[in-house]
């Protein structure tokens, strides 16, 4: 394994102790760490370490980005799109290597690692088309011989803070769009996955170099949350797009709000599938199990709760228990396994703590959890996906635990099920399994799901890039990726042009001299 990974690191230009685009020792009191050591949750081995950016490095990066913006904003958007097209091609060439590194550094299955890189390629394709479609509206002026229209201009520096669970795709969702819109980017990846970030930076930097584009258009600063905090407090960064926990989002919103900057927040979810008595139960089973155990329950869209109609509750429960019996847990690079490890031992502790809290509140486990031990599980990060019967108002059920713990809740009427589904602080993804048109339409109506994503006969996880992605309430309200999410990366300007030889005032106001 080590040898394979070493050749992959070499191919991607990630060298041990690679300081990427930052050098130096520490943040002089801002951060407690000097370097980020990346241990694989797959086998617990140290892959490599990377130096943390110093305050001085950070300043240099911002200054370089400011200078690069002066040119980049004048490059015609379709030409910027062409650069992103070349970046997409470079990702195609590196898909296997980058996907494998994602799997090894983060712990998701190889298929999901490749899928994550495919998502990057897809958003590049989307951004290329978008680069010719940054449309503004034209309005009719109330004044004669006047023309009114709106334009969209770039913001400047976009700061991207990302989470460990989608270590590369989330950056590309933001960067591909922000770049075709004419912005420059500074990325602060998760401290848990620095190597995949370095690999991405190398891939895009080569494309820039080949096109004689300034390095400062796309930047990387490595570090823990202290580096993120400096960025959120920096008035030179026009937009902070932050993906991570609700706790982080509240801190980022407060810091950026205090300087009246812009934020785009993509935070935690607490996603449910309603399984109606009119559901196709076999299809529902696949959606529920993949949603709950895929990426070891570490997706923002992972299925946390199943809200099941009482007439099918016992039968579906039985199917679930049987399916969980068949799950193979182990090395995610071995494609015969269904479930890989959690990201680190802290995540394992949080998983165990949630199980304890659930039991203390009265939860009844029908599939028990636990930590796996033995040669194949030497990292100590492999846990058993588990299932508990609960009440929706348990404190632990209201909280997002980033692990494969699935809660079952029984309902009688669809109105009650929708109230349960909406009865949590988060509002990211939701789904109903039903073949009944009336039920499906009610769920999607204004009286239905209050989430940013609402699906019918599809689980909660696995969104496509074409739609706007994000959620309501404590999920933060931001939208990324497809549809018109690009607008968050631009500023709107309304222009009125008078081509008459008089100066009529709006609202017919008279002002004669
Ligand atoms: P986290 O909040 O611990 O960290 C996310 C990032 O924020 C990291 O880069 C971290 O260094 C930085 N950070 C933390 N505190 C900060 C602060 N005060 N100021 C600035 N930066 C700060 O999250 P995590 O454990 O890496 O990821 C898991 C969480 O991310 C889950 O809650 C999950 O639901 C969420 N998530 C949401 C989406 C979405 O699109 N809604 C996508 C992926 C993950």
Automatic annotation (TrEMBL):
Leader peptide range in chain numbering: none
List the active-site residues.
266
Q: How does it assemble?
A: Homotetramer.
Extract the Pfam families matched here.
Aldedh
What protein does this entry describe? Answer: aldehyde dehydrogenase (NAD(+))
Where the record annotates domain Aldehyde dehydrogenase, the positions are: 34-494
Family, similarity comment: Belongs to the aldehyde dehydrogenase family.
UniProt KW keywords: NAD, Oxidoreductase
> What Enzyme Commission number(s) apply to this enzyme?
1.2.1.3
Please list the GO terms describing molecular function.
aldehyde dehydrogenase (NAD+) activity
